[in-house]
Amino acid sequence: MLDCGEGAQIQLLKYRVPFSSLHRIFISHMHGDHCLGLPGLLSTMALQKLTFPMHIYGPKGIADFVDYIVRTFCTEEELRFHVHEIDHKAAPMVVFEDKSITVEAIPLKHRMPTVGYLFREKSLLKALDRSSADFYGVPVYWFNRIKSGADFITEDGIVIPNSRLTHPSRKPYSYAYISDTAYSPSIVPHIRGVDLLYHEATFEKSLKERAAKTFHSTTEDAGKIAAAAEVGHLLIGHYSARYSRSIDMERLRSEAAEHHPRTIAANEGMFLDLKELRNQLQ
């Protein structure tokens, strides 16, 4: 989960996301609309007696906040919660990694310590050409080695090149989450070429001075960042409360699209498939 605003647990129930599927929460900063859902969510998960570890990431302030929540609402579950406080001044840095993905924190320009997050899928194994494998009599126990790039050696000592037995895997997917921030071109090298960039667009471009004063971005700012970073698609959101109608959202989207044509305006309950988005580029 990326950020956890008030009512997050209600939204999970609404969209039928099982609590048991949530193992890591990444908080961008300690403003209420990004973290006030944590007390309710964590206490509910504790009541459900879930046993797996829960890891929570965020910049300065997250450790004290989660500690208060756990001591107040989850006293019997305190060993299950693990907090990782990020030094936003030392970022960018990898804050989580497993065999399939890396998550990198990116420093943002806001009124308090704030980080964005970059998710990169790791390089995939090659795809096995099963018909070729059967033709050359490759045993099943060789399959993983071949997917990892190994050539096949027959019992007679004949080397079958890996290229004859595999197909190239697809390019790994990537997603960047740029939460509350003033216009900050310094992030461009870190998010270059991602499949999908979420970038806040709190204000329309005519309110540039208001955006700068509050350390937020305009639609134009988001579009320029997406264009400079040559991302696949741009997803804008975090709209000011003054924009509430669908016609407003389309206007905001159009402004960002002046700089990056492949712009999507986020809306509640929206589902995006990275595979489908990438296919649109072909």
Automatic annotation (TrEMBL):
<feature type="active site" description="Proton acceptor">
    <location>
        <position position="33"/>
    </location>
</feature>
<feature type="binding site">
    <location>
        <position position="238"/>
    </location>
    <ligand>
        <name>Zn(2+) 2</name>
    </ligand>
</feature>
<comment type="similarity">
    <text>Belongs to the RNase Z family.</text>
</comment>
<protein>
    <recommendedName>
        <fullName>Ribonuclease Z</fullName>
        <ecNumber>3.1.26.11</ecNumber>
    </recommendedName>
</protein>
<feature type="binding site">
    <location>
        <position position="110"/>
    </location>
    <ligand>
        <name>Zn(2+) 1</name>
    </ligand>
</feature>
<comment type="function">
    <text>Zinc phosphodiesterase, which displays some tRNA 3'-processing endonuclease activity. Probably involved in tRNA maturation, by removing a 3'-trailer from precursor tRNA.</text>
</comment>
<keyword id="KW-0540">Nuclease</keyword>
<comment type="subunit">
    <text>Homodimer.</text>
</comment>
<feature type="binding site">
    <location>
        <position position="31"/>
    </location>
    <ligand>
        <name>Zn(2+) 1</name>
    </ligand>
</feature>
<keyword id="KW-0378">Hydrolase</keyword>
<dbReference type="Pfam" id="PF23023">
    <property type="entry name" value="Anti-Pycsar_Apyc1"/>
</dbReference>
<keyword id="KW-0819">tRNA processing</keyword>
<feature type="binding site">
    <location>
        <position position="34"/>
    </location>
    <ligand>
        <name>Zn(2+) 2</name>
    </ligand>
</feature>
<dbReference type="InterPro" id="IPR036866">
    <property type="entry name" value="RibonucZ/Hydroxyglut_hydro"/>
</dbReference>
<keyword id="KW-0862">Zinc</keyword>
<dbReference type="InterPro" id="IPR013471">
    <property type="entry name" value="RNase_Z/BN"/>
</dbReference>
<feature type="binding site">
    <location>
        <position position="29"/>
    </location>
    <ligand>
        <name>Zn(2+) 1</name>
    </ligand>
</feature>
<feature type="binding site">
    <location>
        <position position="180"/>
    </location>
    <ligand>
        <name>Zn(2+) 2</name>
    </ligand>
</feature>
<keyword id="KW-0479">Metal-binding</keyword>
<feature type="binding site">
    <location>
        <position position="33"/>
    </location>
    <ligand>
        <name>Zn(2+) 2</name>
    </ligand>
</feature>
<feature type="binding site">
    <location>
        <position position="180"/>
    </location>
    <ligand>
        <name>Zn(2+) 1</name>
    </ligand>
</feature>
<keyword id="KW-0255">Endonuclease</keyword>
